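FORM 7B - TANDEM STRUCTURE REPORT

SECTION 1: FIRST PROTEIN
SEQUENCE AND TOKENS:
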Amino acid sequence: MSDLEQLTQALARNLKRWRGERGFTLDSLATRSGVSRGMIIQIEQARTNPSVGTTVKLADALGISISTLLDYDRGPQVRIVLPDQAVRLWSSEAGSSTTMLIGTDERGPMELWTWHLVPGEGTESAPHPSGTIEMLHVTAGDLTLVVGEGEFRVPAGAAATFEANLPHSYRNDGSVPLEMTLAVSIPPVSAPVPAPAHAAGPVRADGPQR
């Protein structure tokens, strides 16, 4: 089985598992994540390899890190992820890529990424749940960071943090490759409250919508 096939199988298995643990129906997870019911079914049946954006939306809606959704091996209190065990989630023909180095769910999902963007390329991200914080450190090149309607230049050696509940994007408008490290902290998702035994009607499992 290829690495992509293993990743697809792991995603199918874990999406179904975490949806069950959260008590989300297919429809409620679709509503929370913005991913269609049909796409969720295809993912759970390992019939498709979703985009990074779709995977991020599902992880956010479930309140877990992408590493958990992709079945990262769990270790003891100290966990080492070797370079060849990091998960590359996006790459372009020109040579840009994003790699998640490590993630945890101990106090709400946290993820650590490394980014490489060649000149002229960039990626966009949909809003994350309210309370999500991103921190980044540019080690080479200049980053053009767009958050909502604001555009910011982050040069090599500089760091930035922002609330990621707005659309945001990362671009390399410079002439040399961009390298940066990115950390994402996502607030935990509360499990749905079970219906009282005397409840007269059905209770929605997805709770209030953001």
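SECTION 2: SECOND PROTEIN
SEQUENCE AND TOKENS:
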Amino acid sequence: MSENHDVPSGGGGGPQPEPIRFFGTTWVAHEGGYALRRAAVAAGSLAAAAAGCLILRFAYQGLTTADIGDFVNLLLVVTFAVCSAIAFRKTWEGFTRRPADPARDEALRSLKMIGFIGSLLAYFIRSLTEAPGEKLHRTEYETALAQYEKRRTGRTGNPAARQKKPKPRRR
């Protein structure tokens, strides 16, 4: 969803806000159903996390029924717990700053998929206060606007209409 109905028209070619998943650019002015979207994202991510926990419980019951051993059961629980904690942390960090090393972040992608419950919970908690990633996007957008205005106001008048000063003659 990348609606641009709330994008402030800054007179033309200025920087445009980056859309956020599920919010488009409604985060700029908090209009266009922004509060309703935040509530829906919070409820949806919490419901998805609960459904994920239920599926993991069924998988764990299947393993205990198969009687594969206590060590494997413990290893499975620890793996999902650690992966969920790492996924939560990395997802949460992604809301506040861009990754310093995108290649390393890409390498953790499979770990974040295993710990999907942690990512969903981070999304849920963040959406209680703002659109996930809104603070980062707002900071970048405001910085870009300030730089654009600084560049734009630094140029005064039409450069083609300026009169050239005569060069002093050399003797």
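SECTION 3: OBSERVATIONS ON SECOND PROTEIN
The CA atoms of residues 62 and 68 lie 10 Å apart.
Helices lie at 34-66, 70-96, 102-107, 109-114, 116-127, 134-154.

SECTION 4: SIGNATURE
Preparer initials: ____
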